[in-house]
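Re: [ENG-882] Designed sequences occasionally contain unexpected residues at chain ends

Forwarding the minimal case from QA. C-alpha cells:
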C-alpha cells in the first residue's frame, strides 16, 4: 500500500483542542486525511474507518505491515449495531465495567467499515477512549475513527503531541494536543467472538479484572508457525523500539546487567539504565538513569517516554525487567520485551 500514497511534505500543526481545531480536524477527516489524536493510553493516527483511501494512507504513513489490523475508536453514545454483527451478553458487562477506558473489544463485524481495517478478517476491534479530547474529536466527526499508535512502525509509541511530531512532522497536517497520556501503554485487546473473552494483547485492564466481571478470561498465545492471521495489533511484530541498541535482563540479573553496562562504558559508549526504583541499585557510574518508578501505574505511564528520551542520549540502553510480572505489569513487560526483542546478550 505504500506505493499508492507518495508521502509528500506538508506543514504539520500542533493545536490545543478547542472548537476551532476540532472543526479543522473534522474537515481533514472528511476529506480523507489523517489526524494525530490523543487518548488516555497513547496518541493515535486517526482516519475515517469507512474510507478505503484514508485507511490505506494510515498504513502508508506509518510504514505499517498490511496484515496488522487497526482499532476503530467511537464516542460513548455511538450505536455499535452499525459495526458489529453479534454482541454477546458478557461483552455488554465488560463495557459497563470498563468503558470508556483502556479496553478494546474484538467483535464479529458487519463489514461496513473499509476492508483494509481488519486486513481481510470478519472481525472488528472497537475502543471507547476515556480521554475528554478524544471524545470531543469523535463526537465532532460522528464517525468511527481507526487509529493505530501515532508512531512510525516499530518505533516507540507516543505519549505526547511532541512525540507524534517527532515521527510525522511534514507527513500529516494536524496533531490535536491533549497533553501527556496518563495510561502510557496501549489498551488491553480482548476477543469477544467466542464463549468467553480472550486477551489478545495485555494492557491496563487485566485478565483478573475481566474474570472478576464475567467469570472467566483466557489469554491468546500466537502460533507463529501456523501462519494465522491475528485479530489484534501488537501481537506478531517487534514493536516499541528506541533508536539505540538495547539489552534486556531479568529482574534477578542486576549484577550481570551492571557488568554489561560497565563494559560498554569502558568502550566509550553512552549507556542508559532503565529500571524500576527497586532495581536502580545496579546503576554503574557514568550511566544515565531512567527510573520507571515504584508502582504499576507509574511504570506503565513512564515507559515510552523513557524509551524516547533514551534514544536521544544513549548508544546502549540496558533495561531490567520488573520483578512483578502479573496484573498490569504483564502489559508493561510485554512492551519492554518487544522493544528489546532483537538483542542476544552473552551472559
Amino acid at each position: 500500500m505504500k506505493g499508492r500514497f507518495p508521502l509528500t511534505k506538508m506543514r504539520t500543526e500542533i493545536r490545543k483542542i478547542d472548537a476551532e481545531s476540532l472543526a479543522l480536524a473534522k474537515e481533514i477527516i472528511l476529506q480523507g486525511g489523517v489526524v494525530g489524536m490523543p487518548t488516555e493510553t497513547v496518541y493515535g493516527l486517526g482516519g475515517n474507518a469507512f474510507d478505503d483511501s484514508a485507511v490505506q494512507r494510515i498504513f502508508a504513513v506509518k510504514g505499517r505491515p498490511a496484515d496488522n489490523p487497526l482499532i476503530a475508536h467511537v464516542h460513548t453514545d455511538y450505536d455499535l449495531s452499525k459495526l458489529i454483527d453479534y454482541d454477546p451478553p458478557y461483552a455488554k458487562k465488560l463495557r459497563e465495567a470498563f468503558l470508556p477506558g483502556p479496553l478494546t473489544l474484538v467483535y464479529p463485524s458487519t463489514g461496513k467499515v473499509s476492508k483494509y481495517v481488519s486486513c481481510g478478517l470478519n472481525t472488528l476491534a472497537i475502543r471507547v477512549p476515556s480521554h475528554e479530547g478524544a471524545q470531543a474529536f469523535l463526537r465532532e466527526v460522528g464517525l468511527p475513527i481507526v487509529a493505530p499508535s501515532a508512531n512510525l512502525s516499530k518505533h516507540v509509541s507516543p505519549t505526547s503531541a511532541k512525540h507524534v511530531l517527532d515521527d510525522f512532522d511534514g507527513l500529516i497536517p494536524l496533531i490535536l494536543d491533549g497533553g501527556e497520556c496518563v495510561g502510557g501503554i496501549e489498551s488491553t485487546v480482548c476477543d469477544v467472538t467466542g464463549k468467553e473473552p480472550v486477551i489478545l494483547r495485555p494492557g491496563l485492564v487485566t485478565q483478573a479484572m475481566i474474570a472478576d466481571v464475567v467469570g472467566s478470561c483466557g489469554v491468546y498465545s500466537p502460533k507463529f508457525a501456523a501462519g494465522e492471521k491475528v485479530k489484534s495489533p501488537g501481537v506478531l511484530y517487534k514493536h516499541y523500539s528506541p533508536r539505540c541498541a538495547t539489552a534486556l535482563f531479568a529482574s534477578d540479573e542486576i549484577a550481570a546487567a551492571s557488568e554489561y553496562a560497565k563494559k560498554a562504558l569502558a568502550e566509550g559508549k553512552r549507556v542508559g539504565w532503565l529500571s524500576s526504583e527497586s532495581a536502580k541499585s545496579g546503576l554503574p557510574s557514568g550511566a544515565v538513569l531512567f527510573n520507571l518508578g515504584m508502582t504499576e501505574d507509574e511504570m506503565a505511564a513512564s515507559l515510552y517516554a523513557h524509551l524516547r528520551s533514551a534514544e536521544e542520549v544513549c548508544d546502549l540502553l540496558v533495561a531490567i525487567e520488573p520483578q512483578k510480572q502479573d496484573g498490569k505489569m504483564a502489559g508493561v513487560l510485554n512492551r519492554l520485551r518487544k522493544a528489546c526483542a532483537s538483542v542476544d546478550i552473552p551472559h
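QA comment: On inspection the terminal residues look reasonable. The longest strand covers residues 103-108. Proposing we downgrade this to a documentation issue.
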